[in-house]
Specification:
The protein is an alpha/beta fold. About 50% of the residues lie in helices and about 15% in strands. Bound molecules: glutamic acid.
Length: about 450
């Protein structure tokens, strides 16, 4: 790692030793921007750039009391990390999941800053959420929680300030409850949230956008190798909104998805997950059930309890679930099984050591901050539509989404190539994203 980057990382480790997930993401980023820092170190050091970049602009922590179905008062913690607004309003999702804490949200906000920069659109980086876990909660409990969460969050967001959206555990239903309360509290109908339903301000294709964008990015990678998706076997993890979009687009382009997974294990479907099985994925998610065993029973396919799908022979692996779901042993399995492309649809699903391992192999690997940016790009299209009181049609959104993904791909490719790391998308994504944010921070006087 570059010397300046290592110094800043060491100071961060001393200051926040318990924020391990956040520290991992900074370490990974610093590792892969080192080829650029090696020639620009003095310049960035003279602006204390890295020190400023790893410090969120603001973190907000709040109490979220809510009432369960038995009439008992419950309490969770809520957060919003407003990481960096150099390029535009803070933008990034809300995650409702038991594993959420400040370290996870700082990692996600940091990643989001670079991801949003790569889109070329005017959006900064932020992330928020709660350790509230939707599993097993009734619709009324979800509503009670969302309303209470927004009572506090509404003080900090707005269409030009900070624009939250969905993430794990937050989909169209939750955005609806959150928006209803925001509108009431602020007496303003505006684009302070994205991921809204199309009938009241949402963008066509927003639910599909992350998954579609991942597959558009994969397509660009495959073009470099002169291959196409038709006939390719694909392993997918997760079964939520992102996995659903990936499965739909892979099917459309002639590939075959043979796995999906939940915290209980994975299912293997030799015939491929298509037709009514695809829609059933969303049905499971909306019933707050995160077990895929039910899917296996309903469609009579194989279920592997407590296992992850990375042991399955396939051409392409697309992790769509959560951070650190792929470790070194999984990467070794992928190599053994002949996997040629690994594309991150989730945020940082490969552990930091899995990333170090995969870049040593012949697998073409794309990090989430590049490949899964289609969701947030479409959110930005939603902000444009809201600000101009217009509605784009589906073809326009899809065309613009494709353009953004191609733009990200070419930036990653060119940036890596210019540094002598052609084909290394981690170097490409990190250096291209870093450069846009860093140089803009300097333009603005590191304010
Ligand atoms: N949560 C998504 C992400 O990780 C989308 C964020 C957004 O649309 O603002 O990029």
């Amino acid at each position: 790692m570059n010397k300046y980057a290592a110094e800043v990382l060491n100071r961060l480790v001393t200051a926040h030793p318990w924020e391990t997930v956040f520290l991992d993401s900074v370490k990974e980023c610093f590792e892969f921007i080192s080829p650029l820092l090696d020639t620009t170190e003095d310049y960035y050091r003279s602006h204390a750039l890295l020190e400023n970049m790893v410090e969120p602009d603001r973190t907000i922590t709040f109490r979220v009391p809510w009432i369960d179905d038995r009439g008992n008062i419950q309490v969770n913690t809520g957060w919003r990390v407003e990481f960096n607004n150099t390029l535009g309003p803070y933008k990034g999702g809300l995650r409702f999941h038991a594993s959420t804490d400040l370290s996870v949200l700082k990692f996600l906000g940091f990643e989001q800053t670079f991801k949003n920069a790569l889109t070329g659109l005017p959006i900064g980086g932020g992330k928020g959420g709660s350790n509230f876990h939707p599993r097993g909660k009734s619709d009324r409990e979800i509503k009670s929680f969302c309303r209470s969460f927004m009572i506090e969050l509404s003080k900090h967001i707005g269409p030009n300030v900070d624009v939250p959206a969905g993430d794990i555990g937050v989909g169209g239903r939750e955005i609806g409850y959150l928006f209803g309360m925001y509108k009431k509290l602020r007496n303003s109908f505006d684009g302070a949230l994205t991921g809204k339903a199309v009938s009241w301000g949402g963008s066509p294709l927003r639910p599909e956008a992350t998954g579609y964008g991942v597959v558009y990015f994969l397509n660009e990678m495959m073009k470099i190798k002169n291959v196409g998706l038709a006939g390719k076997k694909v392993a997918v993890s997760g079964f939520g909104n992102v996995a659903w979009g990936v499965v739909k687009k892979v099917n459309e382009l002639g590939g075959k998805v043979v796995t999906i997974s939940g915290p209980d294990g994975y299912i293997y479907d030799e015939a491929g997950i298509s037709g009514e099985k695809v829609e059933y994925m969303l049905k499971m998610r909306n019933s707050n059930n995160d077990r895929v065993e039910d899917f296996a029973k309903k469609f009579k396919v194989k279920f592997f309890a407590e296992k992850r799908p990375w042991e399955v022979p396939c051409d392409i692996a697309i992790p769509c679930a959560i951070q650190n779901e792929v470790d070194v042993a999984d990467v070794k399995n992928m190599v053994k099984n002949g996997v040629q492309f690994v594309v991150e649809a989730a945020n940082q699903p490969l552990s930091i050591s899995a990333v170090s391992e995969i870049v040593k192999t012949n697998i073409m690997y794309a990090p989430g901050k590049a490949a899964n940016a289609g969701g947030v790009a479409c959110s930005c299209f939603e902000m444009s539509q809201n600000a101009s009181f217009t509605r784009w049609d589906e073809e326009t959104v899809d065309r613009e989404l494709k353009k953004v993904m191609q733009h990200i791909h070419s930036q990653c490719h060119e940036s890596a190539k210019s540094l002598g790391h052609e084909g290394n998308y981690v170097v490409g994504a990190n250096t291209a994203g870093f450069r846009r944010v860093a140089d803009s921070m300097i333009d603005q006087g590191i304010a």
